[in-house]
Specification:
- The radius of gyration is 13 Å and the shape is globular.
- It has a two-stranded antiparallel ribbon with strand order 1-2.
- Helix 1 packs parallel to helix 2.
- By secondary structure, it is of the alpha+beta class.
- The longest helix has 9 residues.
């Protein structure tokens, strides 16, 4: 799997984000907020729990964490290969 890497501001630091090059268009769509319109989202506390089911390589998790810094984001990815890529972000 050929990977591409970008730097993403996350809180007060830069985060190196790697993703499958073949999924570049989808990844950028998620990171730019085109897939999850937050103006339609109602969050009623400062520290919500967000479940990202089908996390892929973690783009949505980063998007949600950037927009809800106090949130706890829990990821689930059923594909073993993709899970390994997701897991590397937290080692």
């Amino acid at each position: 799997m050929e990977l591409d890497t970008i730097q993403i501001p996350l809180g007060n630091r830069e985060h190196t984000f790697s993703y499958p090059k073949a999924e570049s268009e989808m990844i950028h769509s998620v990171l730019n907020g085109e897939d999850y319109p937050l103006e339609e989202t109602r969050v009623v506390c400062n520290a919500p729990v967000i479940l990202d089911v089908g996390s892929n390589c973690g783009a949505a998790a980063i998007f949600f964490k950037n927009n809800h810094p106090g949130a706890r984001v829990i990821c689930f990815e059923p594909s073993a290969t993709t899970f390994e890529l997701l897991k590397k972000k937290h080692e």
